[in-house]
Design goal:
Elements lengths: L4 E5 L1 E2 L2 E2 L1 H17 L3 E7 L3 H9 L4 E6 L8 H15 L3 E5 L2 H14 L3 E5 L1 E5 L2 E8 L4 E5 L6 E5 L16 E4 L30 E5 L17 H23 L2 E4 L1 H5 L20 E5 L5 H7 L4 E6 L6 H4 L2 E4 L2 H16 L2
Parallel strand pairs: 1-4, 1-6, 4-5, 5-12, 6-11, 7-11, 13-14, 13-15, 15-16, 16-17
Antiparallel strand pairs: 2-3, 8-9, 9-10
Helix pairs in contact: 3-4, 5-9
Length: 347
């Protein structure tokens, strides 16, 4: 396979993450400058449909490693599959989406191939045949331009930082099946099962996110049930506040996010945390409710296309980043806003 640009397709149980199609779109832009086509890497078990989808989203070729040993994601067999293929062909660039699996796999492949990784990249250009990548540093306050001097250049792309091409069912491309390099007996780990979590829109893929902070508990007008301690009353008020956040998110088809302060206080599970120690997101619309704007939180959402802040404190740091700011109590603002959106969207 002579393509200079390879793209790893992150899939789970036969469903590709949308970030993978964004990576193909970014790969096509690079290929236009470096020449050649784009090869997609699809690893898994019974994932030929994912390979076909990769062609529809812009890949010119697909290397398909379809084997029962890859039914569940495990670092060793997946890294071995990608590394062995890349070691034979030495592409110029391998793109990975910056997902949990993508980050893990990119690091292991880089070690196998004795090369470097440009991580969480938000923009790319080609300078003298080498990728010049832009990535946020210092909690997103600054952007750094970096290059990789070794080959292949491995790059992880921030989710929703690059547009994906529209799927074209009429496209055709070559799918090459490749044998998995490791047998089951050579793999040290096993996947015993998965813990289920509550449904809802994924933060990683959401175009709209509505987040709540510590301020969701600050409504003295709410009268909690009798017999609760002060801490229990605070948590009860916070849960009522997050019902408002969740109500707006449901109407907008959005994901529910939270600040670290809200998570640490036990208002909402960690899976919803946005920030430096939580999820890094880049939605089209981010609505921050009762979030003051600590630098750790801003690091996780400052690349959102449009930011709306609702906070009682006019001096809250979040307003410096927001395009639209509403100074007021979220308990007064969210109910009519939710109702207005329900009418506007016909829900």
């Amino acid at each position: 396979m002579s393509d200079k640009i390879w793209v790893y397709i992150d899939q789970f149980k036969g469903e590709a993450l949308p970030a993978s199609w964004e990576a193909i779109g970014a790969g096509k832009a690079l290929a236009a400058e470096l020449g050649g086509g784009v090869t997609a890497l699809v690893c898994g078990s019974e994932v030929e449909s994912v390979a076909s989808q990769a062609i529809q989203y812009g890949a010119d070729h697909v290397l398909l490693v379809d084997d029962p040993t890859l039914a569940e994601y495990r670092s060793e067999p997946y890294a071995s599959a990608v590394s062995s293929l890349a070691g034979e062909s030495i592409p110029e660039v391998i793109l990975f989406p910056t997902t949990t699996r993508g980050r893990d796999l990119a690091a292991m492949v880089a070690i196998d191939l004795n090369t470097g990784v440009l991580v969480d990249v938000t923009a790319m250009e080609v300078v003298d045949g080498t990728i010049l990548a832009t990535r946020p540093i210092y909690a997103g306050k600054l952007f750094s331009k970096v290059q990789c001097s070794t080959r292949p250049q491995i790059v992880t792309l921030r989710v929703r930082a690059f547009p994906k091409l529209a799927a074209d069912a009429t496209r055709s491309g070559e799918i090459t099946r490749v044998a998995a390099p490791l047998a089951e007996g050579d793999i040290a780990t096993q996947v015993k099962g998965y813990g289920e979590r509550a449904g809802g829109v994924s933060l990683n893929d959401a175009a709209v996110i509505v987040s709540g902070g510590r301020g969701v508990s600050n409504n003295p007008r709410l009268v909690p049930p009798a017999g609760l301690t002060d801490a229990e009353q605070e948590k009860w008020r916070a849960q009522e506040g997050f019902k408002l956040v969740g109500g707006l998110a449901q109407v907008l088809g959005a994901a529910v996010g939270a600040s670290r302060a809200a998570v640490d206080a036990g208002y909402i599970p960690y899976a919803h945390q946005v920030g430096q120690t939580g999820k890094v997101v880049s939605p089209d619309l981010y609505i921050a409710c009762g979030i003051s704007g600590a630098i750790q939180h801003l690091a996780g959402m400052r690349t959102s296309k449009t930011i709306v802040a609702v906070n009682k404190d006019p001096e809250a740091p979040i307003f410096k980043l927001a395009r639209y700011g509403v100074v007021g109590d979220l308990y007064d603002i969210l109910p009519p806003l939710t109702e207005a959106m329900r009418k506007r969207l016909g829900k």
